Automatic annotation (TrEMBL):
<dbReference type="Pfam" id="PF03900">
    <property type="entry name" value="Porphobil_deamC"/>
</dbReference>
<protein>
    <recommendedName>
        <fullName>Porphobilinogen deaminase</fullName>
        <ecNumber>2.5.1.61</ecNumber>
    </recommendedName>
</protein>
<comment type="similarity">
    <text>Belongs to the HMBS family.</text>
</comment>
<dbReference type="Pfam" id="PF01379">
    <property type="entry name" value="Porphobil_deam"/>
</dbReference>
<dbReference type="InterPro" id="IPR036803">
    <property type="entry name" value="Porphobilinogen_deaminase_C_sf"/>
</dbReference>
<keyword id="KW-0808">Transferase</keyword>
<comment type="function">
    <text>Tetrapolymerization of the monopyrrole PBG into the hydroxymethylbilane pre-uroporphyrinogen in several discrete steps.</text>
</comment>
<feature type="domain" description="Porphobilinogen deaminase C-terminal">
    <location>
        <begin position="227"/>
        <end position="294"/>
    </location>
</feature>
<dbReference type="InterPro" id="IPR000860">
    <property type="entry name" value="HemC"/>
</dbReference>
<comment type="subunit">
    <text>Monomer.</text>
</comment>
<feature type="domain" description="Porphobilinogen deaminase N-terminal">
    <location>
        <begin position="5"/>
        <end position="211"/>
    </location>
</feature>
<dbReference type="GO" id="GO:0004418">
    <property type="term" value="F:hydroxymethylbilane synthase activity"/>
</dbReference>
<comment type="pathway">
    <text>Porphyrin-containing compound metabolism; protoporphyrin-IX biosynthesis; coproporphyrinogen-III from 5-aminolevulinate: step 2/4.</text>
</comment>
<dbReference type="GO" id="GO:0005737">
    <property type="term" value="C:cytoplasm"/>
</dbReference>
<feature type="modified residue" description="S-(dipyrrolylmethanemethyl)cysteine">
    <location>
        <position position="241"/>
    </location>
</feature>
<dbReference type="InterPro" id="IPR022417">
    <property type="entry name" value="Porphobilin_deaminase_N"/>
</dbReference>
<comment type="pathway">
    <text>Porphyrin-containing compound metabolism; chlorophyll biosynthesis.</text>
</comment>
Length: 313
């Protein structure tokens, strides 16, 4: 009998697409195994009416899956690397970082315009502090409107709520088959992606040697190194999704290049820099770039954000 591996995922259409994609790749690499997908709701799927930045809790899209894995109900969990907190619960680890899709953000407007062509004061729907800060840094006249929900909901609200545009991750838009709605690929010099954006990760128990081994076959070394560096940077900045941090690691000829930024929410200050190193020193590179950003003034921005957060509460 073929051994069955139970794969946990959220139940959104994007999450299910990603879990199916991971399972297809796992099957091809491990033909002796059988895989079964189990969908679960997470806190992040239940709380839809509060801005993500105000919930402020790391791991709202991952915790239920992690608990199921620790209980032994599932053998592995599939996540968007972007939603996976930098610190994992005791006993769990990232078993594979899959080959990254194009990591950037895209603009979707109603009238087929680019950022430069939007009218003054155009309304942009996004609930990402990172997108908000960087877009305001580029065009301070834009008006940011909170827009949450999955990709399909956001596209529908764009049409219904009188917004001019929204900004989404290319990866999710592509996976959901909405590429035809993209009106501009936003260049990285305007908007650096979220840490891990575009890559699908597999979380496993540290002690399940068998699962670790079969999952390691779908790991993509260059994507893993790039994202390791980005995650080390975020961890050092103590970011989480509630702080405007952007980062992008790229590998070229075994050299790892890391760009990172911390921006003020109003976009009036953007601290941005880059560093290069060997692929074997991804974490160190991320930490060093974080230190450099902190010295360049990112520390003051983060401090200010933490104080503002206390006012909300
Ligand atoms: N925040 C939700 C989320 N988590 C991962 C993706 C896109 C897929 C990916 O990054 O791999 C998205 C949607 C978006 O930000 O537009």
């Amino acid at each position: 009998m073929r051994r069955e591996i139970v794969v946990g995922t959220r139940e959104s259409r994007l999450a299910l697409w990603q879990a199916n994609w991971v399972v297809e790749n796992l099957k091809e690499a491990n033909p002796a195994y059988h895989f079964r997908i189990v969908g679960m709701r997470t806190q992040g799927d239940n709380i839809l009416d509060v801005a993500l930045a105000k919930i402020g809790d790391k791991g709202i899209f991952t915790k239920e899956l992690e608990l199921a894995m620790l209980r032994g109900d599932i053998d592995l969990a599939v996540h968007s690397m972007k939603d996976l907190p930098t610190e994992l619960p005791e006993g769990l680890c990232v078993g594979a970082v899959c080959c990254r899709e194009y990591p950037g953000d895209v603009l979707i407007t109603k009238y087929g315009k680019s950022l430069d062509a939007l009218p003054r004061g155009a309304l942009i729907g996004t609930s990402s502090l990172r997108r908000c800060a960087q877009l305001l840094g580029y065009r301070s006249d834009l008006k940011m409107v909170d827009l949450r929900g999955n990709i399909n909901t956001r596209l529908r609200k764009l049409d219904e709520d009188g917004l001019d545009a929204t900004v989404l991750a290319y990866a999710g838009v592509k996976r959901m088959g909405w590429e035809n709605r993209i009106t501009q690929m936003i260049p990285f010099d305007i908007c650096l992606p979220a840490v891990g954006q575009g890559s699908i990760g597999v979380e496993v128990r540290r002690d399940s040697e068998e699962v670790l081994r079969l999952v390691s076959r779908i790991d993509h070394t260059e994507s893993r190194c790039a994202i390791q560096a980005e995650r080390a940077l975020l961890k050092k900045l103590e970011g989480g999704c509630q702080v405007p941090v952007g980062a992008l690691g790229t590998v070229d000829n075994s050299r790892l290049m890391l760009e990172g930024l911390v921006a003020r929410l109003d976009g009036k200050q953007v601290v941005r820099s880059s560093m290069a190193g060997g692929m074997g020193e991804a974490e160190k590179l991320g930490e060093r770039l974080a230190e450099k950003l902190l010295e360049m003034g990112a520390g003051d921005i983060l401090q200010e954000m933490r104080q503002e957060k206390r006012i909300y509460e």
